[in-house]
TrEMBL record:
One of its GO terms (molecular function) is DNA-binding transcription factor activity. Signal peptide: none annotated. PANTHER family: HTH-TYPE TRANSCRIPTIONAL REPRESSOR YETL, TRANSCRIPTIONAL REGULATOR, MARR FAMILY. Pfam families: MarR. GO terms for biological process: response to stress. This is MarR family transcriptional regulator. Residues 32-167 form the HTH marR-type domain. It comes from Naasia lichenicola. It comes from the Bacteria.
Length: 183
């Protein structure tokens, strides 16, 4: 245990309370330097995932946003253009252009929406599913390649961290600077 951790071990601070330049999480003290290092590596992970997405786009002769669209449609099965625009954080006009390119490439098809005749449903074709599945498999292989030094408990901890970090980021992205929901 570091001197910094010993210094705060019995101070009675509550979970998450900031103590000096550290934060108590349960019985563990986490320093600002550790949080900074974790933040830097999280940003690095996001950027590296973007690099993999760009690589996949290049190999499949798609743009990075088209890869994101194929991935989102593949995850959902069927989406409306408006749902996809929301997921991609784009305008419906920009998504229409992406859908046109992906339809021309034979990766998706538009179907009538039985719930709203003014709308369409978008789903992947067999070729689009192949592209989507290949993207998932490649991401999965990269992640699997770095798990060889982790046991089940550690994988669970890392998975829980990533889940909580993603939830926190989605929540943060949907609020203004005062914490109010964005409209």
């Amino acid at each position: 245990m570091s001197m910094r951790q010993e210094e705060f071990e019995d101070d009675g601070a509550g979970d998450g309370e900031i103590v000096g330049l550290a934060r108590r999480i349960g019985s563990t003290v986490v320093t600002d330097d550790q949080i900074d290092a974790l933040t830097a590596q999280t940003i690095r992970l996001i950027r590296s995932a973007d690099s993999v997405r760009h690589r996949l786009a290049t190999l499949d002769q798609l743009g990075p946003t088209e890869v994101r669209a194929v991935s989102r449609i593949g995850q959902a099965g069927q989406v409306t253009p408006k749902m996809l625009a929301t997921a991609l954080e784009m305008t419906t006009g920009a998504v229409t252009a992406i859908l046109d390119r992906l339809e021309t490439a034979g990766l998706l098809r538009r179907l009538p929406n039985p719930a709203d005749r003014r709308s369409t449903l978008i789903e992947l074709t067999a070729e689009g599913k192949t592209v989507s599945d290949r993207m998932y498999v490649e991401f999965n292989q990269v992640v699997a390649s770095v798990t060889k030094f982790l046991d089940g408990d550690n994988i669970g901890t890392v998975t829980e961290f990533l889940e909580q970090a993603a939830d926190a980021m989605y929540t943060h992205a949907s609020t203004d600077r005062d914490g109010n929901p964005l409209s």
